[in-house]
Amino acid sequence: GAGVSQSPSNKVTEKGKDVELRCDPISGHTALYWYRQSLGQGLEFLIYFQGNSAPDKSGLPSDRFSAERTGGSVSTLTIQRTQQEDSAVYLCASSPGGQAFEKLFFGSGTQLSVL
Amino acid sequence: GNSVTQMEGPVTLSEEAFLTINCTYTATGYPSLFWYVQYPGEGLQLLLKATKADDKGSNKGFEATYRKETTSFHLEKGSVQVSDSAVYFCALSAGYSSASKIIFGSGTRLSIRP
Q1: Strands A110-114 and A10-13
Q2: Which of A36, A40, A90, B21 has the lowest CB atom count within 10 Å?
């Protein structure tokens, strides 16, 4: 597709359930980010994939959060045993890397609501 | 660790007013600095950037100067328009290569009255 695609756009789940959020980056983009945006808050960095390098997981808030990127393309963010404080918009972004690494293209996000 | 602090909003101005949105940073190494903008209903997009001290980034009438001595990168515009209403995010990428992640400030919501 032409842009970064995220699914689902909305997810309502019960506390304690696991959820998977998907991100389809722009084809050819080597860098992929996950951020979290809570109501009234800025963008909280979660994880960063760059090419074949080991991902930078320094922003993951707990071991309930994990992410993978298969074949250098699609990425899945998994939250296990969801808690109410996990409710937020989860944003994925990709960039071409290299000299244009700062040109992030954002998806529309997944609104996660944990009841 | 690396971080970005920007002024809290919302900021409300009249059309043609002068705008300043403050941003300061903490970083190791020599960060690159950015301003991103999120217009209503749209995703974030890069507004301007500066990659070394004393560089001035500019775009769409907005400017920001990389001040190493004050660790600041304040966003300015001489005459704002209603169409500038958006959320503005200051950001940095610290490290010595493009393999460094980009981290954002908390965002400042700007509203311009006609």
Answers
A1: parallel
A2: A40
For A83-97, the pLDDT digits (tens) are 999 999 999 999 987
Angstrom CA distances, A75 to A55, A92, A104, B3, stand at 12, 9, 16, 26
Q: What is the mean pLDDT of each run of 10 residues along chain A (115 residues)?
A: 89 97 94 88 88 89 95 93 96 86 88 96
Residue A68: strand pairing partners: A76
Chain A, window 10-69: residues with a beta carbon less than 8 angstroms from a chain B beta carbon:
33, 35, 41-43, 45, 48, 50-51, 53, 56
CA distances from B75 to B1, B22, B47, B64, B100 (A): 23, 6, 10, 5, 23
What are the distances in angstroms from CA A10 to CA A23, A111, B43, B113?
Answer: 13, 5, 16, 33
Cis amide leading into A8 (omega within 30): yes
Please tell me the distance from the alpha carbon of residue B99 to that of residue A5, in angstroms, as a whole number: 23
Question: In the block, which residue shows the tokens 């209403």?
Answer: B85
